[in-house]
Amino acid sequence: MINDFGQIALISIISHLVFIALSWWALQAIRLEKLLRPNHVFQARLLYILLAIFIGSSVSNFFLDYLQWSQQLPMILQ
User: pLDDT of 36-72, one tens digit each?
Assistant: First the structure.
């Protein structure tokens, strides 16, 4: 039972990191610089990081929920 928690934790950490990295990569295609004030480079970078974390975590949570639900679905037939 404890081993299962360790595996779930590892999958969750890897999933979050992968989706945050994918979100960061996808955000690079958007030119947010035109919406931000000039000479606010630090704030722009922080905004990119926070957006990547928010989007990546949301997608990862959806993915992990879907994975958990698909594993529980066979229990409906028992």
Answer: 788 888 888 898 999 999 999 999 999 999 999 998 8
Asked if 38 contacts 5 with a C-beta cutoff of 8 angstroms, the reply is: no
Cα gap 14→38, rounded to integer Å? 36
Q: What angle do CA 46, 49, 55 make, to 5 degrees?
A: 135
Output the pTM of the full model.
Answer: 0.82
**Cβ–Cβ under 8 Å, residues 26 and 59:** no
Alpha-carbon distance 42 to 4, whole Å? 41
Q: How many CB atoms lie within 10 A of CB 60?
A: 21
**CA–CA–CA angle 29, 30, 35 (5° rounding):** 155
